[in-house]
Write a structure and sequence with these properties.
Bound molecules: zinc ion
Strand order of the largest sheet: 7-8-2-1-15-16
Number of helices: 10
CATH class of the largest domain: Alpha Beta
Helix content: 10-25%
CATH topology of the largest domain: Aminopeptidase
Structural class: alpha/beta
Strand content: 15-25%
Radius of gyration: 22 Å
Shape: globular
Length: about 450
């Protein structure tokens, strides 16, 4: 594909823009991480990328990724245009890199304690979808069980509320902000208008430039802001996936796997610490709500979260102990020394933005409105112009964006979901319960 990027010397990334989203070519992704992929990718079938960290399963026009038995949501769909497969740039850095190289370049954050946050409280009941059990009470009960486990393991803990009162989101996050080395773990349960919906979701804060999972991958204008919690993107993801895997890969009673997701929940935005929000099941589902009414299952939920915290703790101490988090590759140097200096991706800025050349040289590619790659001068796609969205048949088409940026940054995942047009019903149904105050 001669049209495509001729990478500058020392720059391993071929960057392509589709609508308002930057992508890197799959070829440069595979090369950087030393992964194996199929020679040709059939857009109608999922494909595996294999390397020392295991096998990752992806599909064209999908945000879903499977890795070692559990499910992850990318910020944007994988694309294929003119036979070139494209990986979202923000996911390269914020999802794939922590999976493939959890231990490189980012300083470890030894875990010194846990702030446990029972969601809602007082007049804020949370979901009441389960008759006879309020979410705020289930959150509190599971949180108390969790701190007992932490206590037994000698891990310091703090609760954001120790009785049935409403606590402001800022005050919840402050408990972690005031305690360097603590992580923040918020406990919630879910609801959905479809009573058949079940399963476990684990949320990490959306990285800068990434839409929330519930938006269906649509950029709505609140993505550019960087929040205090974003300085912990790498740890946030490692913590979320550790708790998620402990639950959904459990040998007994494992809840169904709704994936590691992203959202800009207020408690996650404000936390100056690695943080996570757990949606430990659907109170609107008859089976899960009757399970949640039993002490045994609430204890089980607390134990899954606890096991995940322990796995994360180990990953920040002796990475060699956590085989499943270990990057065993030899093709990418683990330090920034010598030849490896431009092969490390600790920060999004180190993967260049798409920058169109104005001198006419084919240094980068954008997608033309007809959906084919070409060397083009910057156009409306640069400044909030047409956005490319998948059509029902999977082809790429243009849709004018009518979303206005929300300058107040008050979006909860719920309002995001209402405003956006989700492309995947599965995700739309997974709208998390949004706290009713302040969100
Ligand atoms: Zn909740």
């Amino acid at each position: 594909m001669g049209m495509l990027v001729s990478a500058q010397a020392g720059d391993p990334w071929d960057v392509v823009r589709v609508g308002r989203v930057d992508y890197v070519t799959l070829a440069s992704f595979l090369k950087f991480y030393g992964l194996q992929g199929p020679g040709e990718i059939d857009p109608r079938r999922s494909f595996d990328l294999t390397g020392p960290a295991g096998s990752m399963n992806l599909s064209v026009d999908s945000r879903e990724m499977r890795w070692k038995g559990s499910r992850y949501w990318l910020s944007h769909a994988v694309r294929q245009i003119d036979g070139i497969t494209l990986i979202p740039r923000v996911d390269l850095v914020k999802t794939f890199d922590p999976i493939l190289r959890p231990n490189v370049e980012i300083p470890k954050q030894p875990l010194l304690g846990v702030v446990v946050d029972p969601g809602h409280g007082g007049g804020d009941q949370g979901t009441r979808a389960a008759r006879g059990l309020n979410e705020k009470d289930a959150n509190f009960d599971v949180s108390r069980r969790l701190v007992k486990l932490l206590e037994k393991a000698g891990i310091p803990w703090v609760l954001t509320r120790n009785k049935d009162v409403y606590v402001d989101h800022g005050d919840r996050s402050k408990k972690a902000n005031d305690r360097p080395g603590y992580i923040f773990v918020s406990i919630h349960f879910n609801e959905d208008s479809d009573r058949a919906t079940t399963g476990w979701e684990t949320y990490a804060l959306s990285p800068q430039y990434a839409p929330s999972t519930s938006s269906g991958g649509t950029l709505i204008g609140d993505e550019d802001e960087i929040w205090p919690g974003n300085q912990y993107d790498h740890q946030n993801f490692l913590l979320a996936q550790a708790i998620h895997r402990a639950a959904v890969l459990s040998k007994s009673n494992a809840p169904s796997d709704r994936g590691v997701k992203r959202a800009r929940f207020k408690v996650l935005r404000l936390a100056r610490s690695p943080s996570v929000l757990v949606e430990g099941g659907f109170m609107s589902n008859p089976r899960e709500s009757s399970l949640l009414k039993t002490e045994a299952y609430r204890q089980q939920v607390a134990e899954w979260v606890f096991e995940g915290i322990l796995a994360y703790k180990r990953s920040q101490e002796r990475p060699e102990d956590t085989a499943r988090l270990k990057f065993a590759g030899t093709s990418v140097p683990e330090t920034g020394s010598g030849a490896g200096t431009n092969r490390t991706v600790p920060k999004l800025e180190q993967v260049p933005n798409f920058r169109p050349k104005t001198n006419g040289s084919p240094a980068a590619a954008v997608v033309s409105p007809t959906g084919s790659l070409g060397s083009k001068k910057p156009d409306s796609a640069e400044i909030g112009g047409p956005e490319f969205r998948p059509h029902m048949n999977g082809s790429i088409g243009v849709t004018a964006s009518t979303q206005k940026p929300n300058l107040a940054h008050t979006n909860s995942a719920e309002t995001v979901a209402k405003k956006a047009e989700p492309t995947e019903p599965e995700v739309r149904r997974a709208i998390p319960v949004a706290p009713r105050k302040g969100e």
